[in-house]
Amino acid sequence: MALEITGRLIQKLELQSGISKTGSSWQKQEFVIETMEQYPKKVCTNLWGDKIDMLTALAIGDTVVVSFNLESREFNGKWYTDVRAWKIEKQSMQAEAGSTPTPLQMTNEMPSYDNATFTDEGVGNDLPF
Prior knowledge:
The protein is mainly beta. It has a single domain (2-95), classed as CATH 2.40.50.140. It has 2 helices and 6 strands. The chain has helices at 53-56, 93-99, and strands spanning 2-12, 16-19, 25-35, 42-48, 63-75, 78-90. Strands 1, 2, 3, 4, 5 and 6 form a 6-stranded antiparallel sheet that branches. Strand 5 (63-75) and strand 6 form a beta hairpin. The longest helix has 7 residues, at 93-99. The two termini are 47 Å apart.
């Protein structure tokens, strides 16, 4: 399942590393983005292995598009979900400007009904009972 989310990079967490049960070394880095919705949400995402290099080219405050997979696993009767990124792209300034919604313009004008024709046909017959 491949998904995408757009947001502003707000935090890079420390690089984590270790040795697996099989003796292989691993590296993981987590980062947090904040969506740009009416009610912004923070999403913590992780990168593994050589994909961590994608994060070093980005600065806090950059608007990014993150492609990720959701993955859940069970351990001792509890479920854990990872948001595992596999691609991060910095959104261009033109795309940012184009995606910003403009506020609605309100007017004090009332709609004109000068040429409208109103009839009483069907009045009283539209009740469902």
